[in-house]
Specification:
The chain contains 6 helices and 7 strands. It is α+β, with helices and mostly antiparallel strands and 242 residues long. The protein has one domain. A hairpin with a 5-residue loop joins β6 (142-144) and β7. α4 (179-194) runs antiparallel to α6 (208-224). It starts with a helix and ends in an 18-residue tail after the last helix.
Length: 242
Amino acid sequence: MKKDTAWILEALQQGTFDLEGQFIYGSNYTFMVNCRFEGETFKAVYKPARGERPLWDFPSQTLARREVAAYLISEALEWSLVPPTVYRLEESPMGPGSAQLFIEHDPDHHYFNFTEQERHHLPAVMLFDLLINNADRKAGHLLIDPEGALWLIDHGLCFHVEDKLRTVIWDFAGEPIPARLKSDLDRLISQLDNDKTLKAALTSHLLPDEIQAMRIRTRDLLESGAFPLPPEDRRAYPWPLV
């Protein structure tokens, strides 16, 4: 299937979902579905809000919306790291939830065995996780598709107002942020301040203080100009690592 992003987003929102199976690993209900739209069929990952396990530190039934917010930030940065993702309200097998294009990949190929060329993507990945305050960046959440493109998945535990960053990727801690990435952060700040479409989209999925906290994190990274060091007062790595 070779379709542009706009078509995929429309298909995820309007297409017919046929359940294929459930992913057995993970705390929350996650399903593989076949999405049928305009004579085409492709696989998608469906995460119903009602299947989320309650957490003490994240508001109930908000994880699927955070998946969509992560996609919106990836697109605002023009990094295209997160597969096309929507929040689907109607005609879903188990009610409202996120729907994301499934990325074909080798599950045994992940961050810990990336090639040197694949590791060139990692500064942007580490910066992205800092921006969205990713509390669960495991090695297996970085996928390489058959064409060699890098994709990031599983962003339900993001955008908390408190510092929650837990990631396996600390490769660049203490190093300067590359100039091209700082330029993208500048553009994101401008969009958060002036782009009404982006602000409205984010407000549909995040609380105002969560959006403001992300803006503050972005500004702090620009002012420091460097990737931070792992915190010493709390756990900096997820578990399991993969």
